[in-house]
Predict the 3D structure of the following.
Amino acid sequence: PQGPHCSPEPPRLWKSGGMGAWGMGFWSNDATADFGYDITDAESLPEVKAVLTSAMQTGIADCDELSEALGAASIVSITLTPSLMDPEEEAYMPEPWPIPGFTPDAELITLAIAVFNRALNPEDNEWWELWSDAGESDTVAALVRRHLETLPAAS
């Protein structure tokens, strides 16, 4: 399966395998894969935090921005629950993996939870709209929930 890419005509491009997304995972798109190349060690913590924070400060969830934020949120969830790792996406994730010295703190976990919840809210959400138009919103929602459910509730 392939996924939509952030363009005006997602179903056609999605089904034809156009550039942008090649699957439904968080790391199966250009925006998130590019972001992953920049995350290499614990020194990347501020960048992960910035991507999560930025996505929560916008009114409309832009597809590329939310895709990157979901990738950042998945860094948090997969670091805490390694069994969430999708072997097919590992090649697009930060290298080395796991990220040396990277330990998500309470603030990162809270931001990751907020991003996962934002992804599940279809209001003003281009990412959700494109997956919905492609007929795959239930599939990506299940993936988001799987990651969200592993994160400890914010105290």
